[in-house]
Amino acid sequence: MTPVRIVCAVLLLAPFVALLWVSSYARMTPAFAGIPFFYWYQLMWVILSALLTGLAYLLFTREEKSRKALRDAGAAAGSAAADSAASGGEEA
Predict the structure, then answer these.
(1) pLDDT-derived band at 1, boundaries 50, 70, 90
(2) What are phi and psi of 9, to 5 degrees?
(3) Which of 7, 11, 44, 47 has the fewest CB atoms below 10 angstroms from its CB?
(4) Could you give the CA distance from residue 9 to residue 72 in angstroms, rounded to a whole number?
(5) CB-based contact 37:30 (threshold 8 Å)
(6) How far apart are CA 81 and CA 79, in angstroms?
(7) Which of 49, 46, 41 is nearest to 22 (CA)?
């Protein structure tokens, strides 16, 4: 597992941990615009979850693209070496 995938996993797990730990936000104060803490904290996590999921997606797809590019470059180099070996190492 690469460091980028670990970061993605943490980004995706953070909302679950924050919202499943109910005792950390099961209170009325501080209120925000007249909304008790219990409610606005959960609504805040709706927005944060979307942002964290988007960030995890961007990190993951960027890593996948770089892995594919490296794999394709390695395959092309391996193919060129195989062609060179098959022709006896001579260039035409």
Answers:
(1) confident
(2) -65, -40
(3) 47
(4) 26
(5) yes
(6) 5
(7) 41
